[in-house]
Structure formats: structure tokens, C-alpha cells
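Problem statement: downstream parser choked on a complex file, so we are re-checking the raw output for the zinc ion run. The parser issue turned out to be on our end (a line-ending mismatch), but while we're here, posting the original submission so the record is complete.
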Amino acid sequence: MATISRIIHEKQTDPAVGKLLDNPEPMVESFPYDHDNSAFVRIARRDFERAIKVPSSFISDASSHFASTYQAWTDACLSNKFKGILPMLEKTLVISRQMADFFPGYDHIADPLIDFSDYGLKANNVRKIIIELRQQLIPLVQTVTAQEIADDSCLHKHFPEKKQLDFSAQMIKAFGFNFSRGRQDQSPHPFTISLSIDDVRITTRIIEGDLSWGFFSTTHEAGHPMYEQGIKRSFEDTPLKRGTSSSIHESQSRTWENLVSRSRPFWEYFYPHLQKTFPEQLNPVSLDSFYRAVNKVQRSVIRTEADELTYNLHVMIRFELELQLMEGELAVKDLPEAWRAAYQRVLGLSTDNDSDGCMQDIHWFSKMIGGAFQGYTLGNIISAQFFERALQAHPEIPQEFRKGEFHTLRNWLTEHIYQHGRKFTTTELIQRITGEGLSIGPYIRYLKKKFSELHKIEKH
Ligand code: ZN
């Protein structure tokens, strides 16, 4: 890992690249900002100028450290010993702070690291949005969890692996995931890897005793390759060939996972098909009961198992702790205790088991601290902003879901988001599509409407 990352970095920072970038400048100035040519030079220059600020030796030492930390983390999780990983995590924090210091002039020490995943966003602005969201979300979670918890036992029968895989493959094919330009395999943690615009691969994980796990991790993951497959072909082999940021990428996976495949119109079409696939398990279960089950809200300690409503509370905890670590307000050795206190305060529950606590996510144990988590919550917020616009332009979208059709939504996403690759930043895309900045309004409206309607269903 260290060798490969050093070689890549040396190539990225080759002075010849800098010279090439200098040459087209007068010509590029004649193109408008949103022209492919000016975007190509703008993004290539941004990547180059960022890369040359960091020495290749630092990149290779950091990669080597992350690779061994990942290994030590898997052992520490098995033995549930945070102490086993503590010295390595302390070094990770030092590396993360050093990385930030290669970019002097920041407002917040996490800003340079946030830039790597969400270019242009600032810790203080994200913090403000997250606090705003928390203020709206906590009372909503309290109202919903005060109701009777939905019965989801129908999802915990035995669902054979092969049938689950086939069904979810049919589903994402209907969404528009192109199997001739990508594939799906299985792995313990679902992920996406893009090798080219014509070869984007995803993995999923099937649990035979839990229908929702494999189902929603597949529909989530499918949003990532559909974005990558939708990028303009002429961007192949250029710096524009990728999704633009972690938050926009996550907005796309959340669109297909939550706004589409946890919606009622979607299940009005697919539930009878699912019943045909699993008649013994599901024929006795009504559509209403099934819809409630897949939207069950219950506080938990594990982020990846959290429901749509409480999920962001998990992310907020991580984002805040990450900033405190970077600011030097929190020592790494105190992380487990700070984690427990935050869970108790925000979600009202905690665990003594650090494997299910501060060691549950791979992020801090395989890369930098800072900038690792904000994309998840911003993705949820942005998905609702975009979806609201798509519905305004095409009110027939939910009606199409009822027929198992998704092309109007997919075409809208391709036109406004997918095709552009890295051409526009997170904030530029939001501005272009909504005419406004990042805003929690549409997301809160969506959650309130959905969960109050769910509650009405439960009353019948
Ligand atoms: Zn994702």
C-alpha cells in the first residue's frame, strides 16, 4: 500500500504536469466556467496544487501506518480491547493533524481533511447545519419512539440466500444499474469500486435470518455505481471521471435506499412480487405490516443497523468527536468514555463493549481522522433537497414507482447530477439544482410527513 501510494503521488506531482497545466491557460479562459474544457483544467489544477503541498514520503508512511492499523483494529475488535489499538490511533491523530498543517491558513484544523472528501465545505458550517438538524430531529425521534414499536418479525424468518440475491439483482436492474457495465458480488462489508465508467462493481451481504439487511444494503450500494455509470463518457481517463464528493455520492445511495425503496409506492408494486418469491414467509403478512416493518424506528448502538430516523444521530456523534480530537479538546485515550457519554446524551443508551462503541466503524482505523463522517448526514439532507426538485419537475414519479418504473427519476438524476462527474463542487451542484444553498428544510419536511403518515397507518 505504501509503495503504490508513493508511486501514484510521485506521478501526480511530476513537475511536467504543472507545466502542462500552465500551458492551456489563455485558451481555457475563453471557455465559460461550466464548459468541459475549463472544468478539466480547473479540477486537474486543484488536484495538482493540493498534491504538491504534501511530500511523497509522508503519503507512503501514512499509508503504511493505516494498513497496519486496519490489521490491529480487526484484532482489537475481536478481543474487545481498545487499549490494543490506542497507540496506533494516537499516531493516526498526529498524522491527521500533520496533514492539515500542510495546508496553512485554514479556519478549522479539520477543514483541509474535509476538503479531501467534500471540497469547499468548512467544519464550522457543517457543524452549524448538524446542530440545526439535531434540534429538529431529537423531538421527532422522541415523538415516534413514544408510539408502539413496529413489529418486524416478518423480516426475521428464514430467507434463502440465492433467492434474496436474485430478487435484489432484479430490483437494482429495474432502477437502472447496468449489469453489462458492472457486477455485484458478496463481501462482509458492502462497498463500491469504480474501475472505469464501464466497469463499476458493488458488493452486498446477505443474512438469511434478516431480509432487510441484504435488501437495503443492495439498494443503498446500487446508488453509488449508478452515479458512476452515468458520468459522461468523454470524461473517462480525466480528473472529472468520478462522483464529485462523499456527500453527493451518499445523497445518491440514500435516494435509492430510502426515498425510493423504503417508500410505500415502491412496495405497492414490489411486495406482491416479493410474496411470490417467499410465499410461505410472506403470504400471511399484509402490505401495511410489511411497510411498517421496513420502516421500524428504534434507538440502537450500532450505526449501520440504525433506521432512517435515528441514523443521523449516530453520525452527529462521530462528527463532533472527530472535531474535538482534531482540536485537541479530546485525548484519544478518553475516546471510549466520551463515546459512551455522547450516546447516553443523544440516544439515551450506551454499551460497555468498545467493539460496539468507538471501534464499530472502520473509518478512523483505516484512514485519517477528520472528514470521515459528515458525508453521511449531508447526503441525507441533500438527497431530500434534490428529490423535492425532481418531484416538482415530474409529479408523476411516485405513480411510476407503483408500476415498477424508475426511468423518469433516473433520467432526471443523470441530467442534473450523474453526467457531470467532478465538474461541479457539492455547493455548486446544490445551487444549480435548487437555486438555494444547503438546507435541512426539505429533509425535515420529508421525515415529518412520512413518519406521521406511518403513525396514522398504525392507528388503524
Ligand atoms: Zn454509501
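For whoever reads this later: The chain is about 60% helix and 5% strand.
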